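Assess this one:

_____
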Amino acid sequence: MTTKQSFLNKHPLNTAKHRDDIPRMAETDMQKLRRRLERLYATYDHAFLSSDPIEFVHRFKAKRDREVVGLIASSLAYGRVDTIKRSIQRVLEIMGWKPYTFTVNFDPAKDGRLFSGFKHRFNDGRDISCLIYFARQMIEGYGSIGAFFNKGYKPVHANIKEALISFSERTLALDTAGLYGTERLPERAGVRFFFPSPAAKSPCKRLNLYLRWMVRSADSLDFGLWKGINPSKLVIPLDTHIARISGYIGLTGRTTPDWKMAEEITENLKRLDPSDPVKYDFALSRLGILEECRRKRDAARCRSCLIKDICIIA
């Protein structure tokens, strides 16, 4: 018996499988899961924005500013929340809190030095300069970042995978203005970290997060700026919290947090809401980010958890 099969047999909600060996719950259990996640969704709403980098996107009203800030904030959304927020704040301060205007007028040779000394874990000011210069080229060439992304999107695709592959490939082929001292973008250039690809099995957490912000419009959390993409095509932004908690509640039996796990979780969530499978992402991730759900069982926390009766460790 494989590890995955053992896990699926262990979880009380997993009773069968469907295509591509994705675990499938009985319909009665799906109804129970839906009720619990809806309660979680209603609890962790707009009032919890301060615990997430999307807070910075909400500070702007103009769509063109939100699109630029979303790209920057999601790109830096790795590590501790307090560190992430400090880094985003610093970049926006350098931009004079006019992100779109700063971006379309950005001159790498002249303005790149403004980010000298910037550091966010293993990304530095040169990476931020290149990210902004990439955004400028997208806007100049297509009118917006969304239009640049849409060039690789086709509604016939099963999900956003092919569009993400295209987006990252085309972005990393843009001019870098010699920011890294070479004509071609070096393989070890830090800006590459901002544009991973499902083709390399990456879950593309930060890009999927950006897409959730830009595409969804069903509530007050996200913005729905990119009208040409169907929210049903989105894939869950898979981080360590979502991977772990999804395992606890039977949404995945995989142990490697890669693109296949992200797809598996999303396919199961589609049974709850086919038109908006990533609607529960913000609420589920709050359990981990706010340390309501920890790696080891905590009797007191588990007792008050809103999804305790569908969790295998509670």
Q: What stands out?
A: The mean pLDDT is 90. The first helix runs from residue 3 to 10. Residues 38 and 280 are 8 Å apart (CA to CA).
